[in-house]
Amino acid sequence: MGFVKTLFQKIANREIPATFVYEDELCAAIPDIHPQAPVHLLVFPKNLLRLTSATPADEALLGHLLFVAQKVAQEASLDKGFRIVINQGPLAGETIPHLHLHILGNRPLHWPPG
User: Domain limits at 30?
Assistant: First the structure.
């Protein structure tokens, strides 16, 4: 049985069309196709598939993802606030098995989150 690419790998490889709001050699950001807020963007690494498989060598990449998330949020005019969410595993609501950060904004985000 061969290796199956994740949805985000196919997007990064341009096998599935998407609107990129940010891209560099390490990661990309796209709008969520099922938005949970007026602004709902996803930032995902191109090569690290799972948060639980991260090693100390991935520390700079993990920091880069947060840096990109704040940059994308700023460009989306989320100056009044935004939330960053990472879902890891099915009990957390993860539907795509590839590390990705949700950036949610432009509506009140209550606590605790559901």
Answer: 7-42+66-105
